[in-house]
Each structure stands twice: as C-alpha cells, then as structure tokens.
Design goal:
single chain; mainly beta; two-stranded antiparallel ribbon; 7 strands; globular
Length: about 100
C-alpha cells in the first residue's frame, strides 16, 4: 500500500479500505460509525487490537473512512491523525516579524 508510488506527478497517496467489522447496521447506536475503514496494521495496541494502517499526505499522518450514501455512492473522509509531523513552513522575508 504505502510502497506504491506511480510516476504521475499529480499522485498524492493510495490507501485501502475494508468493510467495518465493528458496525452492526441493525444497531441504531452504530448509525454514525463508518461503513468502511482502513485495513489493519501488523502492529498491535495495548489492548491487543491491531492499529489501522494510516498513511501520509504532504508528510502529515492521515486516516480514511468511507460512508455509504443513500444514493448508493461512497463518501470518503480523510482526517489528520497527529498534530506533529506537519510539513515545515519556510521562513522568508514574508514572515510575520518582518512585516513591522
């Protein structure tokens, strides 16, 4: 998954999602859970459950989930999962301090 990098200069990322095994469509409490989630990683958390296989977009860790719409389409949501690892901003003559 993460090793796939096509030669297309417009390529951003690839990820794989699978049906959410923790969602029961007959349970109203699970209504807001995603229908599709990222595949499991080989690494386990402290509870012994596998982590989701996250990916990076512009050097920021992200996760994806999919929601089936009433129209039959699939809505994919991509969220940032960490506050660190963001792309560094370059300081130039346009920095805040240089304005005054």
């Amino acid at each position: 998954m993460a090793d796939f990098k096509p030669k297309d200069p417009n390529y951003i990322c690839s990820f794989e999602i699978t049906k959410n095994k923790n969602k029961d469509p007959n349970n109203p409490e699970h209504k807001n859970r995603p229908d599709y989630v990222l595949i499991d990683s080989d690494k386990m958390n402290k509870k012994g459950e596998p982590f989701k296989k996250n990916f990076t977009v512009n050097e920021v860790w992200s996760e994806a989930s999919g929601y089936k719409q009433d129209s039959g389409s699939l809505k994919i949501t991509i969220k940032k999962t960490s506050s660190t690892g963001a792309a560094t901003q370059t300081q130039g003559n346009d920095s805040f301090e240089d304005q005054f």
